[in-house]
Amino acid sequence: MKKIVIAPDSFKGTMSSTEVCNIIESVIKRLIPKVETVKIPIADGGEGTVDALLSAVGGEKIHLTVKGPLFDDVEGFYGILADGRTAVIEMAAASGLPLVEDRKNPALTTTYGTGQLIQDALNRGCTKLIIGIGGSATNDGGIGMAAALGVKFLDKQGHEVSLNGKGLGDITSIDTSKKDKRIDEVCVLTACDVDNPLYGQNGAAFVYGPQKGADEDMVNILDNNLSVYAHVVEKDLGINLQNIPGAGAAGGLGAGLFVFCNASLRSGINIMLDTVNFEEIIKGADFIITGEGKIDGSSLRGKVPVGIAQKARKLGVPVIVVAGDVGDDLENIYDQGINAVFSINNLAIPFEKARHRSKKDLEKTVESIIRFALVIQHRNS
Questions:
Q1: Contact assessment for residue 17 and residue 283, using Cβ atoms and an 8 Å cutoff
Q2: Looking at residue 72, what DSSP letter applies?
Q3: Orientation angle between helical segments 268-275 and 49-57, nearest 10 degrees
Q4: Residue 327 has what pLDDT?
Q5: Is residue 355 within 8 Å of 13, Cβ to Cβ?
Q6: Which one is the CATH code of 3-44+269-380: 3.40.50.1000, 3.90.550.10, 3.40.50.10350, 3.65.10.10?
Q7: Is residue 151 predicted with pLDDT exceeding 70?
Q8: φ and ψ at 291, to 5 degrees?
Q9: DSSP for 101-161?
């Protein structure tokens, strides 16, 4: 074996993608000291995307104070990649659910801080923005983000509305005359792996509102407010948001980015892999080891191992998956280019106990894989 590529997602609650990379590499190097290993920590637009891309291609992490989900000051961050022109932003760093702790209330939370991160990137001369929108605490349709860029959302008296889910219902007109025009001149890619519409039974409020703290009454109010917002957008800007798959992502931030930043809503894993030039990296590899906390039939919807396998299949590079939990319905997973799936759980114990063993269990599983690969190589030589 000459080259092995290591490209896992994080194992949520146990190991970051960088930790997983390092553990796998240490095992490989112990058993095959001369093999080339290429580590690419992966994230799909959610938590860890900034760190993963900075680790993969280099760059600088920018820290700044912005408004959090409830308009209190928080320490946010984003990354500028080594090219000096590409900014990577996690909306959760400014507007994420962990920042509200026990104060969940999607009627009051805002994406204003996410807009501040975007504006800072523009101030530093970035011409391409990659925005991951997983983990939001918000349901404001992205009006907070847009307001930070100069857009005004007005009620029937001509006053600016509250920049949150509650304020959406008061909007009667939108004024974009003071919008930061630089946002129209940059490329904005939004990592979005859901196709929910903005409102309705499959929309932002009904599907994601409860996990952000909304009860049944609030869900209905928020959904109605998103509908009001969508109709004003269509009236004033001529855009039918309900026709945009993914508009309901991150409490409607997908819609806001599409309308006010001309963003493309794309698969997070594909954005990530294209950014690191993945197809070029894996050329000549004997195989790829990827992984995540759980793999099952639902992994077909934008999960890291499947995205990697689809790229690798084009070049005929085998893909091995290691996962904390292996579910049912894997037949379609194999059809996507994954060649083998291994669970790292060596004992049948609950997650709360297994998580404390995860690093050692990962080591043992990878050792078994590499030892078997060496046997096959020896027999074929």
A1: no
A2: -
A3: 20
A4: 79
A5: yes
A6: 3.40.50.10350
A7: yes
A8: 175, 170
A9: TT---TTT---HHHHHHHHHHHHTT--EEEEE--SB---STTHHHHHHTT-EEE-TTSPBP
Residue 370 tokens, joined: 């590499």
State the Cα–Cα distance between residues 164 and 115, nearest whole angstrom. Answer: 13
CB atoms within 10 A of CB 282: 23
User: b or e along 188-206 (b: 16 or more beta carbons within 10 Å of the residue's beta carbon)?
Assistant: bbbbbbbbbbbbbeebbbb
What is the band of 381 on the pLDDT scale with cuts at 50, 70, 90? confident
- Please answer whether residues 77 and 53 qualify as being in contact, where contact means their C-beta atoms are separated by less than 8 angstroms: no
- Residues 62, 22: Cα–Cα separation, whole Å: 25
Question: Helix or strand or coil: residue 301?
Answer: coil
Task: Name the region of 71 (left: φ>0; alpha: ψ -120 to 50; beta: rest).
Answer: left
pTM exceeds cut of 0.85: yes
- 59-63, 165-169, 294-298, 340-344, range with the lowest pLDDT: 294-298
The rounded Cα 149 to chain-centroid distance in angstroms is 22
Weakest mean pLDDT among 11-15, 75-79, 214-218, 351-355:
351-355
CATH class of the structural domain 49-266: alpha beta
